[in-house]
Amino acid sequence: MSNLEPPHNAQWKQQKMRPCCRPVLTSQFLLKILVGIAVLFCILGLLLVLGSDNVKEVSVRYDIQTGCQLDSEEPNYGQPCTVDVEIEEDMDFPVYFYYQINNFYQNHRTYLESYSQYQLSDKKPDNVDNCDPIDRTLTENLKKIYPCGLIARSFFSDRFSASVMTGSDVVGNLCTTCDEIAANDTVATNWGNFVEDDSWENKDIAWTVDTDDRFKYTPNWESDYADAVTNVGDYQEKQGLLLPRVDDPDFIVWFRTAALPNFRKLHRIIHKYVDGNGNEVKKFEKGQVVSFTVHNYFDVQQYSGEKHIVLTTLTWFGSSAYFLGVSYIVVGCFSFIGAAILLVWQPPRKLGNYDEFAWLTDS
Q1: pTM
Q2: Which segments within the chain are labelled E, that is strand?
């Protein structure tokens, strides 16, 4: 007989390689794992629950309030309305202003894929690949839209200004230029792009990876591509608005599509406001009212949607996370119960010399 090994009989090919670590799952080893998980999860859950108590939040639905509804047949785009948000507890700054939209499906496959990466990052305004069905205007010249696609077309275009009131007295204003931007017809065709006012900031609302790498604006495109590209789509033409720049923070936030039909997106960060005496105020006080003037452009009636204004504070882990904290505590409790059952059923005992087991030897 031949002493040659059969072909392909190497340990690697036959998947017989010994692992570098082979833990012996004794009751003592499992007991340590269960107790460790229980302690870790209970502590983390307790921190989340206690931290959630420090989150102050107030929310108001405004699309159903008087004057804030768009006519379904002849929408009166830009119509201003007033929405009052009463502060129920003291809210230390920074306070985060979100808009919330319900029943809007940004996670639809066709919607997600309808944009041009070339326009966003490669500074090619005339490249409308993958923007179907919103890539060109419906006018006779068929200009290419910049930015194109369904995500850009549906950009959230409501505009806000706000004042802080105690009783019937205005004690401070947020964003002193917002009324002009929202109400002036000549200004309303353009977006503010970057607002660095500490009472109404938007420069830090988008992810750094997006602002630094993904979204690049093409300067002078209006003159270089005047005959082929436009920033007015069919929806914007009805609204009397232009599409925002691709590096606009509000546009970037909108472009981070939501996974669920009910979602919030950060709109502004409020660090302070200045009262009538010129003093900087660092919190909203209980009983005050933040009175928002909303210039209404974004229509949600056609798909039975909802629009909300949300003011909230955040903690080290973000917004309120009661459910997550309670879930961690429940898992930790079950681990403790499992450890107790294991301790009674298989109490720890001294382990023998496992080197004597044949399945652990090299032979």
Answers
A1: 0.80
A2: 57-61, 79-86, 91-92, 95-102, 144-145, 159-166, 169-174, 229-230, 263-270, 273-274, 280-281, 283-284, 289-296, 306-312
Total residue count of the chain as it appears in this document: 363
Domain limits, the chain: 27-49+323-360, 61-314
Residue 105 · residue 99 · CB < 8 Å: no
> pLDDT of the chain along its 363 residues, tens only?
556 666 777 777 777 777 666 666 777 888 889 999 999 999 999 999 988 888 899 999 999 888 888 877 777 888 889 999 999 999 998 999 999 999 999 999 999 999 999 999 888 898 888 888 888 887 657 889 999 999 999 999 898 888 898 888 888 888 766 655 555 544 445 555 556 667 788 888 899 998 888 999 888 888 888 888 988 888 888 888 889 889 889 999 999 999 999 999 999 999 988 887 888 888 999 999 999 988 888 989 888 899 999 999 988 888 888 899 999 999 999 999 999 998 888 877 776 666 666 655 554
Distance CA 200, CA 198 (A): 5
